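Complex record, three chains
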Amino acid sequence: MSDDKIIIQSESIDEIAEESEKFENALPNKINADPDNVESGLSKLVLTLIELIRKLMEKQAMRRIESDSLNEEEIERLGETLMKLENKMNELKEIFGLTDEDLNLNLGPLGDLM
Amino acid sequence: MNDVITKSKDVTLLEILDRVLNKGVVISGDLVISVADIDLVYLGLKLLLSSVETMEKYRGAPIYSPYQESS
Amino acid sequence: MKQYKCIYAILDSDVKSSDHKPEIMGLDSSPVYFVGFRDISAAVSNVNQDKMKVSSDIAFSYEKIIEDLWMKYNLLPMRFGSVMKNDTNVIEIMKKKYSDFIDNLKIVENKSEFGLKILCDLNKTDFKTDNTFNLDNYKKLKQLDKKSVYRNYLIDKLEQHKSEDSFMKKIDDIIEKIHSPLKKLSYLSNVTKMVTPKIILNATYLVKNEMKDEFIQKIRQIKREKKDLKFLLTGPWPPYNFVNLSIKEHIL
């Protein structure tokens, strides 16, 4: 009965299943409160969110540069801040043993979020 | 042939799970015993901000200290 | 064992259990019965546990129960796991949310939900962007000390950013061409763009039953025209995505 819910499908339909799963795993929707797992579950959540903020800030910075509203000194300082932020993030990822994939940062361009 | 059928079933299952677990009317509060054994993902700005605060707290902490839950 | 009440849906009429034959079997092997309030009712069954477990079989069963009800009644499906203490509490919810329920029932009456997901293959030429990044357009950036590591970092980032922007614009155009005609054929719609780099569109449409065929034909037509995209259309579904009621009730 449930099989007839599919009206139109292209070939390689399994791709859609894979992609949907990837998306649903983007943020842990079950925060495992088991004491042994709390640390990694929560750190993953926190880092994912921090990385999201960082990317949004980066996007914002790019728009500022494009809008030509900054002078050279400001641009240089912006570059320094962004680079240090990104390095800090990489440090944190290393400390918690998380990769970009873990944080599911392959969510595509963030254009829409701005 | 079986392969195609299994994959169709997977896709249908995903569609059903998304609707049944994530959509529909939600009731919460004292009159309800529980929502299902699925924790909810909260992506509000509040959580974003408190996450940043939590991270700042631990920035100075030694790498291998045990995680401490703040309430 | 303590019995709790699992609510499956809010129905658009005061259904009497005696009217509904044959019985629909609920989860936990108890039959579905109906609790009425004025001209609406809740479809309920007894369950043994307060925390309902999930499995693919259980999810399928839950959906089947809702579909069986939907064949006869206009309804608002409940999210899985809506469990209450007793029938009195069920009635209380209906009492408190009566007008919201009535309004929402009116919106979904004689309509079905369809889900549309569209994937693209990023490697196909259509999605490649023309990477003509010109540093001359950014004089101030260009003028920074060439040895500055920050300058080069920013140039890289900016190039990446421009590339993403033009890619997004391309996708936006494609989505607009697809969604626009479908929006015209539907009563309501929810659209999410670029859910993942591959799923460029994830949309649900609430379509009047008499428009169903035309809606599906339109998608077939679009699919023929856009051979480089992959489509998944599912439905008709009960209106899970068009029930914007989140009820938080506290006993005073």
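Note: Helices of chain B lie at 2-22, 45-59.
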